[in-house]
Amino acid sequence: MAIEIEKKFLVKGSPWIGAPFQILHQGYIAKEGKATVRVRTSQTQAWLTIKGRTADKSFSRLECEYDIPLQDAETMLKELASSDIISKKRYTLIHQGFEWTIDVFDGNNEGLVLAEIELPSEDTKFELPTWAYREVTFDHRFSNSSLSKLPWSSFCGEFSDE
């Protein structure tokens, strides 16, 4: 079973221009008790992901991800998702030896750009790129499951001065 150790940042500028990307759609089947169950599709693949909760002041959690048939995933998103479907382009960049993903959101979350870095441990040191300007790891509004229920358009005004 894998552990996800991830930090999340708001992005300024357009560092992703020219980087490879995937178009992703994801929805949440359940978010109860100790776990969240997500279905995600790309143009050619699909995954079912079960994520545990993070403890206070921690950014580590259990994550189990499984390949599933694309057609099954599309049906699950249509029939079982309990909130809005998240749509985004996911870009991949390498900065100082670490892989960063940059999500450029569409729909109700249009205008939101988030960068994520997955780390081997919580105490791993890394250099923050200049385009990653504000950490939002502990602001749960920026989790994709929260954004599917309370989209960026409903609270982006709080960040308009940045």
Which keywords apply here?
mainly beta; 162 residues; Hypothetical Protein Pfu-838710-001; globular
Overview of the molecule:
The mean pLDDT is 93. This protein is mainly beta and 162 residues long. It is built from 2 helices and 9 strands. An 8-stranded antiparallel barrel has the order 1-5-4-3-2-6-7-8. It has one domain: Hypothetical Protein Pfu-838710-001 (Beta Barrel), CATH 2.40.320.
Q: Main β-sheet: number of strands, strand sense, barrel status?
A: 8 strands, antiparallel, barrel
Which class in CATH terms? Mainly Beta
Order of helices and strands: EEEEEHEEEEH
Counted up, domains total 1
Strand content: 35-45%
Question: What distance lies between the first and last C-alpha atoms, to the nearest angstrom?
Answer: 38 Å
Task: Give the second-level CATH assignment, the architecture.
Answer: Beta Barrel
- Rg result: 15 Å
Oligomer: single chain
Give me the count of strands: 9
In spatial order, strands of the major sheet run 1-5-4-3-2-6-7-8
Low-confidence stretches: none
Structural class: mainly beta
Helix percent band: under 10%
In the CATH hierarchy, the third-tier topology is known as: Hypothetical Protein Pfu-838710-001
**Based on CA inertia axes, which overall geometry fits?**
globular
What is the arithmetic mean of pLDDT?
A: 93
CATH homologous superfamily, by name? Hypothetical Protein Pfu-838710-001
Distinct helical segment count: 2
